[in-house]
Design a protein that fits this description.
It is built from four helices and six strands. It has helices at about 5-15, 20-25, 35-40, 50-65; strands spanning about 25-35, 45-50, 70-80, 80-85, 95-100, 105-114. The chain has a six-stranded mixed β-sheet with strand order 2-1-6-5-4-3. A hairpin with a 2-residue loop joins strand 3 and strand 4. The longest helix has 14 residues, at about 5-15.
């Protein structure tokens, strides 16, 4: 996998605000872990499992932040994984580590923010 090309496509998908394009990168059984979920759920959860749950969470987030725009700073490659460093919402910096299944879809993602 060309991690730089993937990073550019992923950023472009998010900046489009098109959930179908965004979710096309993820497997049906995806698990995401991010502190932003705690903010959205009032501190109850920090992870979501399954594309349906993730879709609902991201749909709400995109509605809450209609001017959402990500800027890629750096991408790095690992074993069946990539890490993206980018400028996120609320002027935060983010690092997302994404793990891929055998079909090339993200099946696990961990997000970190400053």
């Amino acid at each position: 996998m060309d991690h730089q090309k993937f990073a550019e496509e992923w950023i472009k998908a998010w900046n489009s605000h098109d959930l179908d394009i965004i979710l096309s990168h993820y497997s049906d059984d995806v698990e995401i872990v991010t502190p932003m979920i705690k903010l959205a759920t009032g501190g109850k959860e920090s992870s979501l499992k399954g594309k349906f749950a993730v879709r609902e969470y991201w749909k709400t987030a995109l509605e809450k932040y209609p001017d959402l725009h990500f800027e890629l700073i750096k991408s790095t490659a690992g074993v069946d994984s990539v890490a993206l460093f980018y400028k996120s919402i609320m002027d935060k910096h983010a690092v997302e580590v994404m793990f891929f299944n055998e079909d090339g879809k993200i099946n696990k993602m961990y997000a970190h923010y400053d």
